[in-house]
Amino acid sequence: MSTQLTTAPDDFQLELLKQATACLPTLEPNGALKARLRVAINGALRNVDDPVLLQMLRALFDEISRVFDRLFLIERKLTELDTLLESLSILEVMHFEIRHLIDFIADRALSTSGLPERLSETLDGIHYGMTHDVKRVFERELKTDIRTKVIPVVYGKIRHAHGLLSNCFQQSLITLIQVLNPKLNPIDLFDDFEVRLRQSLLLCNDLSALLRVVKQAETLRTSDALQTVVDKALEFRDGSMQYLMYRDWRGYEHHSLALITSIQGDFDSNDLLHQFGCYLEVLYGHVKMRAVLTDLFPSTDGTEADD
Fold it and tell me: Are 95 and 134 in contact (CB under 8 A)?
């Protein structure tokens, strides 16, 4: 069933959009991805002996898998410009389902008896990351008036929302499975090596740029240099931070917020500036150890690559 938006698009813009969607890469069959996810999840669950914990994790993995089904359906429909309203409807359903999943993690998963500390920390990080991304997608990208926009704008919003949610749930699933099965190689799970490589390279570049700004501010100690740190720290938070592991989001926001508050309050920020710089160096080091960057940044100390 096709749908139409209420506002007609510019013919030239629509033609360009049709050409762009015609060039989209052929997607992997949904069955192949689902089969790999099922194998990885079952392999991870075999390491769980506690029946109560096992039941909770099965329910959690089922909910996450359902989100992937929705995302795949939207990705298929991105090549059909007359079904954008259907994609918006799917996203509305996903909003409800993801909110339910977030509540499930907070109310049931995190209160499961006998929950190991590392798994508890992982679930807490996933809960934090999902909450952050849901607000970003549904309160900023997809507002209530989206249906009145022209087709190119709606297409762009849906594609961006799809990308954010895909990254969110891929990272959530990988992180959760790796806690149960540390031997999992995420590159073998999702067939998106090039995407993860680009994201990791962008993250390295932006962390390096932010670190340079911080170092420069430490040297110059001028109001302009400090304001540049504030601007770049906020820019990173609203942009490339999404490519960090969830466990690092709170750390970044903690350090950056303390520094930004100090600078904007015209307090002595030297110590906080130095602490922020040290923290960024640690993050940069962790990102360089990711599996997709192994050939670019080979480990020299035998440390296992981080995703």
Answer: yes
Q: Which of 156, 189, 222 corresponds to the end of one domain?
A: 189
Cα 297 to chain center, whole Å? 23
**Does 3 map to a domain?**
no
pLDDT at residue 297, as a whole number: 65
Tell whether the model's pLDDT for residue 5 goes beyond 70: no
Single-letter code of the amino acid located at 90: I
At 75-126, the pLDDT tens digits run 888 777 677 888 899 999 999 999 999 999 999 999 998 899 999 999 999 9
Whats the size of the chain, residue-wise?
Answer: 307
Q: Are both 154 and 94 inside the same structural domain?
A: yes
Assigned token pair, 263:
């600078």
If asked whether residues 125 and 249 sit together in one domain, one would say: no
Residue 5 burial class via C-beta count within 10 angstroms: exposed 0-12, middle 13-18, buried 19 and up: buried
Distance CA 154, CA 45 (A): 40
Same domain, 86 and 33: yes
pLDDT confidence tier of residue 184, bands split at 50, 70 and 90: confident
The reply to whether 4 falls in a domain is no
Of 151, 173, 189, at which residue does a domain stop?
189
Closest CA to 191 of 16, 5, 25: 25
**Segment 211-252, tens digit of pLDDT:** 999 999 999 989 999 999 999 999 999 889 988 887 888 899
133, two tokens: 């991304």
- pTM value > 0.85: no
